[in-house]
Amino acid sequence: MTESVGARGVALVTGGSRGIGAGAAVALAEDGWDVAVSYRTQADEAAEVVAACEALGRRAVAVQADVAEVNDIERLFETVTNELGRIGAVINNAGIVSPAGRVADYDLARLDRVFRINTIGAFLVAGAAVRRMSTARGGKGGVIVNVSSRGAVLGSANEYVDYASSKAAVDTLTIGLANEVASEGIRVVGIRPGLIETDIHEEGRLERIGTTPPLGRPGKVEEVAALIAFLASDRASYMTGSLVDVAGGR
Ligand code: NAD
C-alpha cells in the first residue's frame, strides 16, 4: 500500500463524475487532498474530473462503482486504498431524484429505486468507511460528509416526497452514526443543499422552484463544494452530527 502524498490525505467522493460531486472533488484537490472519484456509468466525465484534480498538483483516480451494490462498494474502497493510500474523508454524495409526482401515484419500482440508491447506498458507503477508519478497528480516524437535501425537512410536496424522505433517513444516519463513532476518531456531518444548478433535475424544475428561496436563485455547485471542503477539513474539527443547510435561506 502506498501512503498518501496529499497534504491532507485521501478523499473519496461517490458520484464524483459530475454536478456537486465533481465540484467537491476539485474543491478538495484545491484544499490539498488526493482525490478518488467514483462513478456509475460516466467514465469520460470522471476522467475529466481526475484531470482537473491532477492539474492542481494532486494525485487522483476514478473508479467505477454502483453505490447500491455491496460488492462494488467493497471493491471501490479496496481499489482506492491500494492506489492512493488510506482514505481520510468520504463524501457520501451519489444520489438520484425522482420525477415530479404525487405520493398517491408512486409505484413500488419508483420507491425501490430512490431508497435503494439514496438511503441504502448511503448506509453501505458509510459502513464501509467506518470499518476502515475506526480507531477501534485499527484505523486512523476520518470524516464522512453525507449529502442530504433541504427537502428532507421541507417534504417537497408535489415534486418528490419519496426523494425527500430518502434524504431524511440520511440525516438520521448522520446523527446516529456521529454518536456511534465519535470516540473512534470519526466525525460524521451532513449538508442539506437547496436547489442547485446541476443536471440532476428534470426539465423545468429549476425554473419552477429554483427562484423560490429568499436569495431568489438556485445555488451553484461551487457554493456547495466549498462547504464540503470545509467540513472535511480540520477547520471543522469540533463539528460532528451537524446538519448544515446551504439552501439560499429556503
Ligand atoms: P448529478 O446527477 O449531477 O450527480 C449525481 C452523481 O451521482 C452522478 O455522478 C451519478 O453518476 C451518481 N450516481 C447516481 N446514482 C448512482 C449509483 N447508484 N451509484 C453510483 N453513483 C451514482 O446530481 P447532483 O445535483 O450533483 O447531486 C449530488 C447529490 O446532491 C445527490 O445526492 C443529490 O440528491 C444531492 N442534492 C442535489 C441537489 C440539487 O439541487 N442539485 C439538492 C439537494 C441535494
TrEMBL record:
<dbReference type="GO" id="GO:0016491">
    <property type="term" value="F:oxidoreductase activity"/>
</dbReference>
<dbReference type="InterPro" id="IPR036291">
    <property type="entry name" value="NAD(P)-bd_dom_sf"/>
</dbReference>
<dbReference type="InterPro" id="IPR002347">
    <property type="entry name" value="SDR_fam"/>
</dbReference>
<feature type="domain" description="Ketoreductase">
    <location>
        <begin position="9"/>
        <end position="184"/>
    </location>
</feature>
<keyword id="KW-0560">Oxidoreductase</keyword>
<dbReference type="InterPro" id="IPR057326">
    <property type="entry name" value="KR_dom"/>
</dbReference>
<protein>
    <submittedName>
        <fullName>SDR family oxidoreductase</fullName>
    </submittedName>
</protein>
<dbReference type="Pfam" id="PF13561">
    <property type="entry name" value="adh_short_C2"/>
</dbReference>
<comment type="similarity">
    <text>Belongs to the short-chain dehydrogenases/reductases (SDR) family.</text>
</comment>
